[in-house]
Amino acid sequence: MENPALGEVFAHAPVTTEQHLDEVLDEVSRAHPLWAALPAADRRRYLLGCREAMLSAADRIAGLLTREQGKPLRHAQAEVRLSADWFAHTAALATEPEPVARESGARITLERVPHGVVAAIAPSNYPVLLAVCKIAPALLAGNTVVLKPSPVTPLSSLLLGEVLGAVLPAGTFRVVNGEASLGSRLTGHPAVRLVSFTGSTDTGRAIARQAAADLKRVVLELGGNDPAIVLPDADVETTARQLFDRAMVNSGQFCAAVKRVYIPRERSHEYAEALGALARSAVLGDGLDPATELGPLVSRAQLTRVSALVDDAVRAGARLVAGGRTAPRPGHFYLPTVVTGLPEGTALEAEEQFGPVIPVIGYDDPATVVAHVNASPYGLGCSLWGDPDRADALARSLDCGTVWTNTHGELRHDVPFGGHRHSGIGVEYGHWGLLEYTQIRIHHPAPREGLAPRAGDQESS
Ligand code: NAD
């Protein structure tokens, strides 16, 4: 495995063979009925045990996460703590059956039952958190889980597998490691009934196609190209600072980072200069150095992609305000970049760049920008900046999973998150995320004459 801050190999990760994957799937398939038959209270207790186990191993997991992913150590530590707490938040979610109707004295009940074996496929930007967001609700609902992390960042997940494996019953949760071909064998395996995937839109499409063959359920949390729309009255200094920080989260490698900024045309120069000054003052470095604000890109391939998108925009006539090249140091660093004057249709605006780059785009009329961003294939998030009343009114016309006013990319464990259009299918987090890991079973019992109706019961006609 390569440390992206140094561009050097620092460890080797065991790779799962196809035969071993089949054995793992056999084990989790056998474990599923036992796990599903446990009372939910027992599964909740196991989840709380997972939290404790993660917290005990937090320093080891966070250290590996920084070395394989590149993010500052304090951010890796925060990711691990949040992930541990996710087990507790999930354990608190309700799973009880609900009465839905009454007929001839019998209560018709809706139960939430597990799918069976869940394949959890995670990306390279938040490998620990985005794995736990799947593992915790899948387990609570009574599924067993096989996790395949990104082959670029498998070490923290393999350690997570060991740590959780020590507290969970055998076969309830396993981690496998390999390239896309192993992912595809996992998601295509007949033992798997639900694929929960977070990653790029292209991979999501491939998974959906494959899942269609035997009608597996899918939850797809895919790419985003989130716009921030600044209204004319916003204060430049505070807004530019916020936009910069929310674009540069994890060096731009965050699905809900600000990825393009729309500014009233007469003020776009002012904003571009303010963002450029912030870009020039950001401190890049190894995540293990406490002074580091921005780490590297996760891989050489990602660095090449970001570089190519910026070079293409500049060739097409865009102006670089800051950055626009790799940093003169080892590792996969790209200088924080601000670009303006992009000709219409430039790929840097139209595609998800997933790097520390802010395209600043002038506009004449907010309604036209709203129509423009709604026409993008991406519909993950969007933010509006300026007068809250005006922003909230415009928010209702945006076609995306989340609209923020005067903030961007704020996610919570109890608020569902998902994308419209090519940004995904289904949601994660909280009660609504948990439901994705269940299917409905209706229990329509035999008529019970004389059973007194309960408050809330409805007699069907
Ligand atoms: P990626 O699509 O390259 O890889 C994600 C995972 O899919 C990896 O584990 C990979 O090995 C696996 N994979 C690849 N091909 C596969 C196949 N055919 N079948 C099964 N598995 C396969 O994504 P990445 O570069 O690791 O992550 C970045 C992307 O993730 C960005 O597009 C980002 O926006 C997106 N993302 C979305 C969210 C969200 O919640 N919407 C959150 C984080 C990241």
CATH architecture of the largest domain: 3-Layer(aba) Sandwich
Our Rg estimate from Cα atoms comes to 24 Å
CATH level-4 homologous superfamily of the largest domain = Aldehyde Dehydrogenase, Chain A, domain 1
* Tally of individual helices: 15
- SS class: alpha/beta
CATH C-level class of the largest domain is: Alpha Beta
Q: Oligomer, anyone?
A: single chain
- The total domain count is 2
Heteromolecules bound: nicotinamide-adenine-dinucleotide
Shape: globular
Instruction: Write out the strand line-up for the largest beta sheet, numbering strands in chain order.
Output: 12-13-14-11-10-16-17
| Strand composition percent | 15-25%
- Tell me the span between the first and last alpha carbons: 64 Å
Query: Would you identify the regions where 5 or more consecutive residues have pLDDT less than 50?
Result: none
- Count of beta strands: 20
Q: What does the largest sheet look like?
A: 7 strands, mixed
Mean pLDDT: 96
The CATH topology of the largest domain is given as: Aldehyde Dehydrogenase, Chain A, domain 1
Task: Tell me the layout of helices and strands.
Elements: E1 2-3, E2 8-9, H1 18-37, H2 40-56, H3 58-69, H4 73-91, E3 98-103, E4 106-114, E5 117-121, H5 127-140, E6 144-148, H6 155-165, E7 173-175, H7 180-188, E8 192-198, H8 201-212, E9 217-221, E10 227-230, H9 236-247, E11 260-264, H10 268-281, H11 300-315, E12 319-322, E13 337-340, H12 347-350, E14 357-363, H13 366-374, E15 378-379, E16 381-385, H14 388-395, E17 402-405, E18 420-421, E19 424-425, H15 430-436, E20 438-443
Parallel strand pairs: 5-6, 5-8, 6-7, 8-9, 10-11, 10-16, 11-14, 13-14, 16-17
Antiparallel strand pairs: 1-2, 3-4, 4-20, 9-19, 12-13, 15-18
Helix pairs in contact: 2-4, 3-4, 3-6, 4-5, 9-10
The chain binds nicotinamide-adenine-dinucleotide (NAD).
